[in-house]
Specification:
With 667 residues, this protein is an alpha+beta fold. The chain has 4 domains: 32-164, no CATH class; 290-381, Immunoglobulin-like, CATH 2.60.40; 382-560; 562-667. 42% of the residues lie in helices and 21% in strands. The protein has 13 helices and 20 strands. The strands form 5 sheets. A 6-stranded antiparallel barrel has the order 6-7-10-9-8-11. A 5-stranded mixed sheet has the order 2-1-3-4-5, sandwiched between helices. It has a 4-stranded mixed sheet with strand order 15-16-13-20, with no helix packed on it.
Length: 667
């Protein structure tokens, strides 16, 4: 499969000093858990016996290589003993979306998951592999592909492909007084000598690690691993997520046997590893090779440069070529037939590429060499267009962070309600407190970022889609603030419940009643009326003589009762069908029905459905942004999808303002 790395041009000077704090645990004593998930196509030659042999061969090939560093597990998605409801979310996403699913951000679990796809067709077995690393949040940048004819060769070939991208991982530490160098502490380095596992010249990709306001997922362990449950009432630790730091790589210059690496920083940025908004950086070793470099330049509008009359491209594997004193060996000659700049010599592991229209405007692009396929670099010769592209990327990044914070807040509400339902009030209090604190922190950081972007936007020519995103960021932050006020009120209620719970003289019925009342309030905040009515039913069994409770339940049921068949149909679409939209085309096609059914609910004064729909909008935002981020601007089809996504974003943003006004919330 052809490799395509999308690289974006911005001004690059020297690597800045990574003067961030280092609270991240390097986990020197933690072993690796390497999971291989196998997906096969249906074919008479792909038998259960064949799949079982592939599993055995893969384990045999990989466990020998990983040795004492960890354990290898292989899972067959076609195994009847592994039904879909037992799959991890990442496996399900891979099954639905293929290897592109690995690019979506997710909370870190520490486990490596390598996907192996095996298909039999045209007399051959076709193999494809790609990895997601749960310690760094990084994915292998290349989908490796190979074919073999003999069935007994599949497992061995797969093992070699998988092993090539295993990728040791580490935690980055700053080196005092150095702007171009860092230290890396390898995970698992305390389990045994690391000699021979990392060599001079090896290249590591980098990811920025951030703390979220979601609880950390349960650690992933082997089948025999033991997970110690936290004590009741303890505040769950926050989940970590990460963002790949594009055009920033670490090149090993001194690997020590104890797993400490001294690395040179190669980056396009003035500050390679900025400390703002992150708790640290982690990195993963890439399966790089030696090869000649071919570079294809593409404008931000997706137009391929087919002339070299104004642009010079140079590449070296030791350092970035000096534009003011160029060397002939670094020049990449332009191939008119292929529309590529091609280097004349083999480079080792990484290409330090400079692209520019003059020595003073040259931009730096460090690129790992993963194969001999061409590298696509979006590059604009006009400074204004380049500035615009950089600004639009910054806005998209903040919009994604704001949408994620809002979604995490929605998840927090749902989790707190479930904990209360499970009579885990102390846990609910800890979770809600953590969520409120994290939402406040996200609001403060993103509000500052939005103000900076708005100020910068006054002097930058920008696309209409950027204004839509800026509006959406503001709406997301407004919703985050408003819902956090409600969450803090719920925290007061939960505290009262916990206080009663800790009083040995408190009546059990009073505790249960207060707990259910707290859950009802949280459910109704998000418009979850069905669950609230069920909680009222439980409450009435506890306090059967409380007329006020019965009246509140009856009033809510009357409000929730659909007024006619059209009203029920509208509610079913908005709350059940529409949340399942999965593509940009789905979003676009849904707009007429979304509009019609919202109007139907408004006609009947149905504010509860509107409240629930507003909660669902919080999940739709990240989904739409994620779909937009994966588009290739060099593709005419994807450029049209980007336009459609912009249209959808405008409609949803306007509808959210409308619905907030309808339910009586400040838009």
């Amino acid at each position: 499969m052809a490799r395509r790395l999308v690289l974006v041009a911005v001004v690059a000077l020297s690597a800045g000093s990574p003067a961030f704090a280092q609270p991240l645990d390097a986990e020197p004593k933690q072993s690796y858990l390497w999971r291989v998930v196998v997906k096969t196509n249906a074919h008479p030659l792909v038998t259960p016996e064949f799949r079982e042999r592939v599993k055995r061969d893969v384990v045999a090939a990989l466990q020998t290589g990983i040795g004492t560093l960890g354990a290898v597990e292989v899972f067959d998605l076609a195994d009847p003993a592994l039904p879909r409801d037992k799959w991890e979310p990442l496996w399900q996403q891979f099954d639905e979306k293929g290897f592109a699913a690995l690019d979506a951000p997710r909370d870190l679990t520490g486990a490596k998951t390598h996907f192996l796809r095996v298909e039999y067709r045209d007399g051959k077995y076709f193999l494809e592999t790609r990895q997601y690393d749960g310690f760094t949040g990084l994915s292998s940048p290349l989908v490796r592909a190979q074919s073999v004819r003999a069935p007994e060769q599949v497992g061995r070939a797969a093992g070699l492909m998988l092993d090539r991208d295993f990728g040791l991982v580490g935690t980055v530490e700053a080196v005092a007084g150095r702007t171009d160098e860092v230290k890396v502490l390898l995970r698992g380095s305390g389990l045994g000598p690391m000699s021979g596992l990392v060599r001079n010249g090896d290249v590591f990709a980098v990811a920025a690690v951030r703390k979220t306001n979601r609880p950390a997922p349960a650690p992933v362990r082997t089948a025999t691993g033991v997970i110690v449950k936290p004590p009741p009432g303890s505040i769950p630790p926050p989940a970590f997520t990460s963002t790949p730091r594009d055009f920033t790589y670490l090149k090993v210059v001194d690997p020590a046997p104890d797993g400490t690496l001294r690395c040179t920083v190669l980056t396009r940025y003035q500050t390679a590893l900025p400390p703002a908004g992150v708790i640290g950086y982690r990195c993963m070793k890439l399966g790089t090779v030696k090869a000649q470099v071919a570079v294809k330049l593409v404008s931000s509008d997706g137009v391929v440069y087919k002339t070299a009359s104004t642009v010079t491209v140079r590449a070296n594997d030791a350092a970035f070529p000096n534009p003011a004193a160029p060397e002939a060996k670094d020049v990449c000659a332009f191939d008119n037939k292929l529309a590529q700049f091609r280097g004349g010599r083999v480079l080792n592991n990484i290409a330090c590429v400079t692209v520019g229209t003059s020595p003073t405007t040259a931009k730096q692009f460090p690129v790992p060499i993963l194969s001999d396929d061409p590298i696509t670099i979006p590059f604009d010769t006009a400074p204004a267009r380049e500035e615009r592209a950089a600004f639009e990327r910054a806005v998209l990044s903040v919009a994604s962070a704001a949408a994620d914070a809002r979604l995490a807040q929605t998840v927090c509400f749902d989790t707190v309600a479930k904990l209360i339902d499970g009579k885990k009030n102390t846990d609910a209090l800890g979770h809600a407190t953590l969520g409120a604190e994290a939402a406040d922190n996200a609001d403060a950081t993103l509000t500052d970022e939005l103000a900076r972007l708005k100020e910068q936007g006054k002097t930058v020519t920008k696309a209409e889609s950027v204004d839509v995103l800026l509006t959406k960021i503001k709406q997301s932050l407004d919703a985050l603030k408003a819902n956090n006020v409600k969450l803090k009120e719920h925290i007061k209620t939960i505290k009262a419940v916990v206080k009663i719970e800790s009083d040995p003289a408190a009546a059990a019925t009073a505790l249960q009643a207060e707990s259910l009342n707290a859950r009802i309030r949280i459910l109704l905040t998000g418009g979850d009326v069905d669950q609230a009515l069920a909680a009222y039913d439980q409450l009435i069994t506890i306090v059967p003589d409380d007329a006020d409770v019965k009246k509140r339940r009856a009033d809510l049921a009357a409000e929730w009762n659909p007024k006619d068949a059209a009203h029920q149909k509208a509610r079913d679409y908005l709350l059940k069908t529409w949340p399942a939209v999965a593509t940009i085309q789905d979003f676009k096609d849904s707009l007429p029905l979304l509009r019609a059914h919202v109007d139907t609910c408004k006609k009947h004064g149905d504010k509860w459905t509107a409240r629930r729909l507003l909660t669902l909008f919080g999940a739709a935002g990240p989904k739409l942004i994620e779909l937009t981020e994966t588009l290739d601007r060099a593709s005419e089809t994807d450029r049209k999808l980007a336009t459609d996504a912009n249209t959808v974003g405008k409609v949803l943003a306007a509808m959210e303002v409308e619905l907030r006004g309808f339910v009586g919330e400040s838009p």
